[in-house]
């Protein structure tokens, strides 16, 4: 096996400027893939990541596209496919959370979560499918909250991540005859801006894991890179936890 198993592959990652998405971009690029990724508003983190990776010789493209917006999601995929000359790997990572009980959940937050966590995944995938060759990889980033809700206020977020799991199963059936695999990686608590390991809920979440700690973005990215690679071809339609034992 080459030390750069993704050489020649072209990847598209949503929400790649920070957190888990940025680490996935880093890892795929380090393994030889050309990578396009999206971010939402400020380009500061995206520019820094592009600078870091291009100085290492990688081909990396940052695209501003609000995942809440259908047209921007579609246009981002089309631009990535045009500039990279096609796509082989799609990682649907962009998502947002809002924690509130159902009777106090703002309507605009409900729409935002559904549009980003579900809508972006659907429009990105639907647009990307026509650019994918046989044997391509689609990797969705769901959440352990599809399977386990450790406290109140997470019903809407959990609902969107349940949709990721179901979409993954259906899509694996739709695309199986092209040798395209579709998997859902479900992180447990991972230290990022969205869920810092010193945040308000951190201690209670650590207590649910078997090791009493948060995971690192690299724990998720290394697994995503395996799923993106040539040795994962018989894994598809699976919901795969990287969660420190959150559900055991
Ligand atoms: P972060 O908030 O740290 O990073 C989110 C990334 O998504 C950023 O790059 C951000 O870009 C981008 N993004 C957010 N909203 C949009 C938007 N509207 N349009 C385009 N890009 C957007 O999140 P995490 O890294 O923690 O989470 C990544 C994934 O992992 C999500 O799917 C999340 O649900 C999942 N997950 C995370 C867990 C955790 O504990 N951290 C646990 C379980 C699942 P920008 O810089 O422009 O804001």
Give the helix proportion (percent range).
Answer: 40-55%
Q: Structural class given helices, strands, pairing?
A: alpha/beta
- Overall 3D shape: globular
* Uncertain regions spanning at least 5 consecutive residues: none
In the sheet with the most strands, the strands line up as 3-2-1-4-5-6-7
What small molecules does this complex bind?
NADPH dihydro-nicotinamide-adenine-dinucleotide phosphate
Distance between the termini: 34 Å
What CATH calls the topology is Rossmann fold
Major beta-sheet overview: 7 strands, parallel
What number of domains?
1
CATH architecture: 3-Layer(aba) Sandwich
Write structural notes for this entry.
With 248 residues, the protein is α/β, with parallel strands linked by helices. Helix content is 41%, strand content 17%. It has helices spanning 19-30, 44-54, 70-84, 107-129, 155-175, 202-208, 217-228, and strands at residues 10-13, 34-39, 60-64, 87-92, 132-141, 181-187, 239-242. It has a seven-stranded parallel sheet, with helices on both faces. Helix 5 links the parallel strand 5 and strand 6. Helix 1 (19-30) crosses helix 7, helix 3 (70-84) runs parallel beside helix 4 (107-129) and helix 4 (107-129) packs parallel to helix 5 (155-175). It binds NADPH dihydro-nicotinamide-adenine-dinucleotide phosphate (NDP). The site of NADPH dihydro-nicotinamide-adenine-dinucleotide phosphate has 30 residues, from helix 1 and strand 2. NADPH dihydro-nicotinamide-adenine-dinucleotide phosphate binds at residues 15-21, 38-41, 45, 66-68, 93-96, 116, 141, 143-144, 187, 189-190, 192-195. GO terms for molecular function: oxidoreductase activity. Belongs to the short-chain dehydrogenases/reductases (SDR) family. Residues 9-188 form the Ketoreductase domain. InterPro entries: KR_dom, NAD(P)-bd_dom_sf, Sc_DH/Rdtase_CS, SDR_fam.
């Amino acid at each position: 096996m080459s030390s750069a198993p993704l050489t020649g592959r072209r990847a598209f990652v949503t929400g790649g400027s920070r957190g888990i998405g940025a680490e996935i971009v880093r890892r795929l690029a380090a393994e030889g893939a050309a990578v396009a990724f999206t971010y939402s508003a400020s380009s500061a983190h995206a520019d820094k990541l592009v600078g870091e990776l291009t100085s290492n010789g990688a081909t990396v493209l940052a695209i501003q596209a609000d995942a809440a917006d259908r047209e921007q999601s579609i246009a981002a995929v089309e631009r990535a496919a045009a500039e990279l000359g096609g796509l082989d790997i799609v990682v649907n990572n962009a998502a947002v959370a809002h924690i509130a009980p159902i009777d106090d959940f703002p309507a605009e937050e409900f729409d935002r979560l559904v549009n980003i966590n579900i809508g972006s995944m659907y429009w990105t995938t639907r647009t990307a499918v026509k650019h994918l060759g046989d044997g391509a990889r689609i990797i969705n980033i769901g959440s352990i909250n599809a399977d386990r809700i450790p406290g109140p206020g997470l019903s809407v977020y959990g609902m969107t991540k349940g949709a990721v799991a179901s979409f993954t199963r259906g899509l694996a059936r739709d695309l199986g005859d092209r040798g395209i695999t579709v998997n859902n990686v479900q992180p447990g608590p991972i230290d990022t801006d969205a869920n810092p390991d010193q945040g308000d809920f951190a201690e209670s979440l650590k207590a649910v894991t078997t090791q009493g700690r948060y995971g690192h973005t690299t724990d998720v990215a290394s697994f995503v890179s395996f799923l993106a690679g040539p040795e994962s071809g018989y894994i598809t339609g699976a919901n795969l936890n990287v969660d420190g034992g959150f559900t055991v």
